[in-house]
Amino acid sequence: MTSQVQELLDGVEAGRWILPSAEVPNTVSLARAISGICGGRYDWNDPVADELRSLIGEPKHLVFVIADGFGMNFVNTLPEDSFSRQNLAVENRAVFPPITGANLFALSRGEWAGQHEVIGWYIHLKELGERATLFPWIRTRDGKNLSELGLTPEIVYPDDPLVSQYDRHAMSLIPNELVSSNPTRALHGSTATGYSDLSDASTQVVGHVAEHAKTYSHLYWKNIDQAAHQFGSESTETAQQISTLESELLKLRSELPADVRIVVTGDHGQSDIPDDLKFAIPVDDELKKYFEATPSGDNRTQIFRVSKKNRSKFVEVFQSRFSEHFFLFSSEEITALELLGPDGINQLTAGRLGDFMAIAKGELS
Amino acid sequence: MKVLTPENQRPIGEQSEHGGFSPAEMLVPVVIS
Questions:
Q1: Which of A55, A262, A359 sits opposite B21 (nearest CB)?
Q2: CA A357 to chain centre
Q3: N or C: which end of chain B has fewer CB atoms below 10 A?
Q4: Where do the structural domains in chain A lie, given as residue ranges?
Q5: pLDDT of residue A276
Q6: What number is the average pLDDT over the span A23-51?
Q7: Measured between CB atoms, does A212 come within 8 Å of chain B?
Q8: For range A6-32, the mean pLDDT
Q9: Distance (Å) from the alpha carbon of A150 to chain B's nearest alpha carbon
Q10: Which among A230, A277, A322 is the nearest to B14, CB-wise?
Q11: Which of B2, B21, B25 faces A277 most closely, judged by CB atoms?
């Protein structure tokens, strides 16, 4: 075992870090539980999904809310009599990396990141030979639309969403500005429909439930994550968005029949980043000579592609500069640690993972 | 908290981030009503 792996495991033991796990409540198992309840696929051997399914029950109408960025760090700041605190059933572990793409696709597919292949905001696509920014659906380098470069959602996200097999009427409410995007199509198939604000979305959910005998209503809301990125997790702006979510959930609950089950989760939490702890690798940096392609991934989980002959030198230089602040794991270590899930890493994910992943260590305790 | 940002990536000026192992990033609620 390398000293880095030992450091990580020691930190986990001390409670400083948390690793993804299929053995405790987790986001993948929640997706599977909901799929089973809604008459969709349920052929996994997943006792945690069975437990979550039992907690939710077998309602004819299920409303599933994903509030982007709504981590336990925010729930813990709410009053004890708030909707989310009063109805908190369990704490889930997010899929690693705890970013929106990896977790939304885990919830859409019922699979870990090693199987659903969405492992960063920026992803190196072999079809392009370079980096793409998938949610805006562009080639990162020049902003060119990926469709104009011959890519389709089926190529980039090859599997089907679980919702396509549900035995009930399904509607996925997505903010108007995102509803027509290719990632939305990949996440929700033909069930996506737009909404203007949270109040509009709630009204559509109430109408959907009233109109059909059995329903699955999904609502995705992005405002908490947006406010936290822009203003910080402890800002008044972020608190205002959390308050809006809470009041809309209370209102929705009061407007829906009692036998309608509402399930709310987040895709990840947030950590504030002081300016003096941000690091850049500038265009003329020494490390760049080792890269085979521009780094991909995300700000706290960077993915590097390094030619074989340069790997030991890259590790040496990177560690000498950043080991205080970042782990640097090889793709083999990522697989062995099951960071992308217990089911291994499929071929497409392996191609996107590259050679190394640098993971921010976070605050020093 | 720390973030590593190569050029041409997401704005380095953002106040909060996620993607690491900390409990603040990894733990999410499941609220059932």
A1: A359
A2: 17
A3: C
A4: 3-19+275-360, 27-118+157-266
A5: 76
A6: 98
A7: no
A8: 97
A9: 23
A10: A230
A11: B2
- Of B15, B1, B16, B26, give the one whose Cα is nearest residue A266: B26
**Nearest residue on chain B to A24, alpha-carbon basis:** B27
**Strand A169-175 to A192-195 pairing:** parallel
Query: Between A and B, how many CB-CB pairs are < 8 A?
Result: 235
Which residues of A are less than 8 Å from B28 in CB distance? Answer: 27, 70-72, 91-94, 265-269
**A8 contacts in B (CB within 8 Å)?**
21
A107-155 confidence digits (pLDDT tens): 999 999 999 999 999 999 999 999 999 999 999 999 999 999 999 999 9
Q: Is the pLDDT of residue B27 over 80?
A: yes
Total count of residues recorded for chain A: 365
- Provide CATH code, domain A27-118+157-266: 3.40.720.10
Q: Which two tokens stand for residue A323?
A: 């080991």
Contact A206/A255 with Cβ under 8 angstroms?
yes
What is chain B's Cα-based Rg?
13
Q: How far apart are CA A212 and CA A260, in angstroms?
A: 12
Give the 3-state secondary structure of residue A90: strand
